Amino acid sequence: MDIAPFINKHPLILTDAGLETDMIFNRGFELPAFAAHTLLDCEEGRAALTDYYLGFIRLAEAEEAALLLDAPTWRARRFFAGELGVEASTLKEANEDAIAFLRGLIRQRTSRATILVNAPIGPRGDAYAPEEWLSAIEYQAYHSEQLGWLAEQSVDLVTALTFTNSDEALGITRAARTLKIPIAISFTVEINGRLPSGEHVNQAI
To answer: Where are the domains of the chain?
Structure first.
């Protein structure tokens, strides 16, 4: 999908904010591995997600703004399979369910707002204290798996969120380009303007 026309047409684009934080601190859910997609496994979780997303849809309608909604995919990837106690096939289904859930909600709402579905993807390891460093080629191979699952769902956009080094950002960008998925890059930046890798954000960009 070419999102340039969407951006050019809408001078004001809202996003949702802090899904996992909201679910834990405002709604009392315990998210294993901080993984919001686990909420899709129960009716209570789905109801909470519905309420969360509808709040932003209503806001976009009231402000006559476009809206970019994040699906609960940030930690639905192989690195956390062990901590979550699941197989990779289960995570593939989680990505599929996350996109289908959000698209279904948007269809049911028949919103007056223009809405795109974004799929956040986190770094291979910890977003603030990564355990190891890989090459851009290795990161590309790793992220190609989840990006492939999302490409099958025709997601509008993916965002590499809380990435800790430029090699991983480069690897996932190459993977997204191969799969023809628009991608945005967002780094974890410390108060000194540097990534956990030590790179200054200007250098990383």
So the answer is: 4-204
How far is Cα of residue 64 from the mean position of the Cα atoms in its chain? 24
User: 111 in helix, strand or coil?
Assistant: coil
> What length does the chain have?
205
Q: CA-to-CA distance for 143 and 78, rounded, in angstroms?
A: 9
- pLDDT tens-digit series, residues 129-171: 888 889 999 999 999 999 999 999 999 999 999 999 999 999 9
Cβ 187 vs Cβ 164: under 8 Å? yes
What pLDDT band is residue 2 in, cutting at 50, 70 and 90?
confident
* Superfamily name and number for 4-204: Homocysteine-binding-like domain (3.20.20.330)
Check residue 68 and give its pLDDT.
Answer: 94
Helix axes 166-179, 136-152, angle to 10 degrees: 40
The conformation of residue 119, written as its DSSP 8-state character, comes to: E
Residue holding tokens 């099958």? 152
